[in-house]
Design brief:
Layout lengths: L2 E10 L4 H14 L5 E5 L2 E7 L5 H9 L6 E9 L7 H6 L4 E3 L3 E5 L5 H5 L5 E5 L11 H11 L7 E5 L5 H8 L4 E6 L2 H13 L5 E5 L12 E7 L2 H6 L1 H6 L1 E13 L3 H10 L4 E7 L2 E6 L1
Parallel strand pairs: 6-7, 8-9, 8-11, 9-10, 11-12
Antiparallel strand pairs: 1-3, 1-4, 2-3, 5-6, 12-14, 13-14
Length: about 290
């Protein structure tokens, strides 16, 4: 998948406006397809799939920027289509133990002897290939902790934005009868399939695409997992609701605690109720019914 890197320069005479302006800009960009952001010195960088980039729409958003006294310019760069995780994969990651129940280990660098010494009931090996989800991030850990408090035996689980497939694999190993996963990134789709095979898991069906793929999936789910960014969660809340049966659980993460009220409002509009929540550092996880 080819991505564009859009480098924004924000200019303002009021220093205090800059972080506020960046937050507003990120929200605008998320609404037109940008997937990720980072700060680099005085630059604010956004990433978007090349095929989704609409220059005229971006220009319209910037022309309508709601904060006076802020000037925004930008330049674009096409990113090389390669495995950007290669260096990270080479270094690997240390085993991550979650609540003495699940160990997530780097399948690239962990030999059979080391695996045999793991003491947790559930062990998951992950080879990350340009996909999010190794357990090193707070949001992944919070979703796994939430899953440990759900009796998963015999349940049907949906994993939205599956990344490496880690949540699907954990669900299966905790006893889920079947798992359906999807991701918009073809690297992630193939990585989920690869990691499922690596872990001997055979009850995960993986689709390529966004939430619209659910129109091709029959039936509803007992547990819906979505560890994605805030704007996609809000946009797809209706699709999550349609995939749930009465008394199903929806587990959401991938957003900052400060954004929880926005997520909660979108959920309420769909008739969903928050029954629990978790936070780790500045990140949040909501459990809804």
């Amino acid at each position: 998948m080819n991505y564009l890197k859009i480098i924004f320069s924000l200019t303002t005479s009021v220093t205090e406006l800059r972080p506020i302006a960046q937050d507003v800009l990120a929200e605008q960009l998320g609404n037109i397809g940008f997937e990720a952001f980072e700060e680099a010195g005085n630059e604010f960088i956004g990433y978007i799939q090349k095929e989704l980039f609409d220059k005229s729409r971006l220009d319209e958003e910037l022309a309508a920027f709601p904060i006076e006294g802020v000037s925004i310019g930008y330049q674009s760069e096409e990113m090389e289509n390669k495995d950007w995780n290669a260096a990270w994969e080479e270094d690997g990651f240390e085993p991550i133990v979650i609540d003495d129940a699940v160990t997530i280990y780097d399948a690239y660098h962990t030999d059979a002897a080391a695996i045999s010494r793991l003491t947790t009931p559930v062990n998951v090996g992950i080879e990350a290939r340009q996909a999010f989800g190794t357990g090193t991030h707070q949001t992944t850990r919070m979703v796994v902790r939430t899953m440990l408090n759900i009796e998963m035996n015999g349940l049907r689980v949906l994993d939205c934005g599956c990344g490496t497939g880690i949540l699907s694999i954990v669900a299966s190993k905790l006893g889920a009868e079947s798992v359906v996963a999807y991701d918009i990134d073809e690297w992630s789709v193939e990585n989920t399939r690869h990691n499922a095979q690596l872990n001997g898991v055979e009850n995960i069906e993986v689709f390529s695409g966004d939430a619209s793929v659910l129109t091709h999936v029959s039936g509803v789910f007992d547990v819906v997992l979505a560890n994605i960014n805030r704007n996609i969660l809000i946009h797809d809340m209706g699709a999550f609701k349609e995939a749930m049966r009465t008394n199903s659980l929806l587990v959401l993460s991938g957003f900052y605690a400060a954004d929880a009220p926005l997520i909660a409002e979108a959920a309420r509009e769909q008739g969903l109720t928050i029954i629990n929540s978790r936070t780790e550092d500045d990140w949040c996880c909501l459990i809804l019914k």
